[in-house]
Fold this sequence. Notes:
This protein has three helices and four strands. By secondary structure, it is an alpha+beta fold.
Amino acid sequence: KVISFDVVALTNxxxxxxxxxxxxxxxxxxxxxxxxxxxxxxxxxxxRIPVDIVVTPVEGEAVTISTAGVRVAPSRQLMDRLGEVVGxxxxxxxxxxxxxxxxxxxx
Length: 107
């Protein structure tokens, strides 16, 4: 027997559970043209999810840049396009189902 308090279609999971997008870029080989292309891609997918860019320098610790005004609507197209610009392994979605109180099961 399975008791469920919520069912979400997989196609709507991004909208419901994603809280932040994280894009990692390396300072090595980074060019201004990449930044422009990144901005274009993010602008084309405007939404409600904030974006953080983590820059890894040659030496030292990574720096996280919060892009206050840039928010996206996560989608397969956006993830694919970002993968082309910065590499698929450098794009992540962060989220959670926590913080929602499950309803009483009624027994």
